[in-house]
Each structure stands twice: as structure tokens, then as C-alpha cells.
Amino acid sequence: MENEVQKNPEETEETEVIEEETIGDVLVDFVDNITSLSETLPITMQSVIFAFNETVKRQEAFEKENVKPDNDDENAMWVKEGTLYEFLELHKQIKNYGLALRIIPRSLIVSLISQYDAFLGELLKKIFLIRPEMLNASEKPLTLAQLVEFGSVENAKEFVLEKEVESVLRKSHAEQFQWMESKFDMPLRKNLDVWSRFVELTERRNLFVHTDGIISSQYLKACKEHGVSWSKEIEVGDDLDVTPEYFSDAVNIMFEIGVKLAHVLWRKFKIEDLEEADDNLIEIAFEPLKAGNYALAKNLFTFGADTLKKHFNHENRRIFVVNKALAYKWGGEDKKARNIISAEDWSDTRDKFRLAEAVILEDYSKAYQIMREIGKNPKEIRKDDYKTWPLFKAIRDEVEFQKTYEEIFGEPLNKIEKEEVYEEDEVATNE
Asked: How many alpha carbons lie under 13 Å from residue 46 in its C-beta half-sphere?
């Protein structure tokens, strides 16, 4: 090209640019990791249950052919000669599968808490790197010999940081919050309704690691101190387990705790990242909304719309409000959703917000009118948004909606370009 700037040959070599990981990156990694765990349990359990059932069928067929009762001893049986080993192996497999059905959910609870611990460690490191002066107040003095051994101030700072974070992670999960509230001079548990369930979950994890799930006096003491209540009476010596419902709730608890903790600290210590923080929270909270996890979506978007007092701009707050209303609407609380939307003035907002208001209030004729006004303007709404946004979950099935879409874009709503699908598949497989 004529306008291309000539480069010095020594400068033409590619240099790798390493972007510093942000608090948002740490949070996204944590959410991705616990989401993968939540999707792993059902698949794993289905596989074990299938293997269990198939082995039971084999065992029943085997016994029908090779096992006879002992008429003289009702507690004994006769196994056909040459088949005893197979008989014992089948029963051993059934026993092992049965144990796996009990152990796997427990192991995933332990993994879930381990992911949180790793996340908390990384989060605290980010805070200390943003505010290194906090390390100056650390109660971990270094000797002259240690300073000489480290060789640089940076190495010494890294050592102090690691020790500080390590000392926090050795505390109980409740004590960690107490430490953070004191260290960062801010309340972290105020109006945190999920707190008692978080404490119970982390204490149950300790039981699985140390007592094979048998309730201890320490578990009961810690839970009662933090307002934990149970649906039925429990006592020392009882055995705790993990149902599918409990595991699903556990993932939601850790998701909510992690997101809220990260964002409260992020916005306190790096207010200049407010735009990035808003985008991060919107994207993270949007995933459970799309997935139909409306309880979690309600918590996160209510946090974004109401608990957080500062947003990068008014538009971001409106996004939180709209998605909060959607979480209530699709979660079966339509009246609450309408109240949320009606409490806001949408008259001077962008067309996409006026469209959201009309759809949530089910004023469909107004919605179709706004759709036509928006037309093909991708700065408001792209054509694919009409196909995927939870906002259009119900109206998407309306004949008039489909006609309006086709009128605007000149193609049916259900038309999908092959390239778009295959490109997404290719990206997914190459990640």
C-alpha cells in the first residue's frame, strides 16, 4: 500500500504482548470453572446409573442361569462350578457403582469449594497489587538476611503477598469474610441473604473431607452461629449427603458469593474500571438468564440494579433493570416484573429499551410498531437478537412477531445461515 509506513527491519519481529489479568478475568475464570462442574455432575451420574443398571441386568441373567438356592440353608446358595469368579465380580461392580453414586456428588462439592478458594486467593492478590500499601501494614516483617536472599524489592513483595494470602486462606470461610471486612474497612455480609447457606455449604465440605460426611459438633456450632436452619432435626453422628437439588443450589451459592464479592471489591479499589466492571457483570449475569436459572439471575441483576449505587452510565443501569424484570417474569412472577418496569420512566430512552418495556408489559402492538421504527439498525437491535434474547422468549412464537420480523429483514425468522452455525462450531472446537 502506498500509505504504508516503512518499518525498521529490527522492529519487524513479532513481539508477544501479555495483557495483565484483571479482576474481571479472575471472576470469569471462576464462573467458567464452577459452571463446568455444574454440567459435569448430571452427565457423570447418568453414566454411572446406566452402568449400574446394565450390570444389575447382567447379574440377574447370570443368576438365573448359574445360581440355585440351597434348600437346606435359606441363607446360602449354590453357584455353578466355574462361574464363581464371575458371580463375585458382578456383585463387586454393583457395589462399586453404588458407592460411586454417593462419592461423586460429594467429590464435586469439595471441588466446588476448592475452585472458590483458588478464586479468592487470586482476587486478594489483585487487590493487593492495586493497593500495595496494604501490604505495608502486614504483620510479617522480613529479616535483612531474607531481603538479601530475595535479591529485589519485587521478589520480597511477592513473598509478603503470597504469605498474606496464604494466611487468609488457612482461616475458615466465615473468618475470611471477617478478615476482609476488617482489612478493607467495609461490610461484606450486610443484606447478603445467601450467607447462612454459604456457611453451611463450606462446613459440609469440611465434613466430606474430614469425617466422611458424619455431622460433628463443630459443624453444628458453626452453622448455628451463622443462622443456619434445617428442614428436619439433625444431630451429631447423622450422615449428610448431596442430592441433585442440593448440588444445584450449591453452585448458585458459590456463583452469587463470588460475583458479589469480586464486584464490591473491584468497584471500591479500582473505580476507573467501572465501564469494564459493568460489562463484566452484565455478561456474567446474562448467562443464567439465558439458561433458565431465573433464581440466580434475579439475585445478580437485582444486585446490579439496586445494590450497586454507581454505574458507568444510565444505560447500563437500565440494562440491569430490564434483565432483572425478565428474570422475575420468566421465573413465574409476572406482576413483580411489571412493577419493576412500570417504576421506571422509559419515555426518553433508546428504542431498544422502549421495545423491552412494551414486550415485558405485553403491549405487543406497541412492540411491533417500535420494531418497525428500529428497522435494520444494528446499533439498537441486530436481527439475531430477535432469535436469541430472552426478552423475546414468549412474543417470538406470535405470528405477528414473525411477520414483522420478515417485513423488516426480508426473510423468515427461522432462517439461519449455515456459515454462522459452522463458524461458531469451528470456534468452539478450536478453543
From this structure: 5
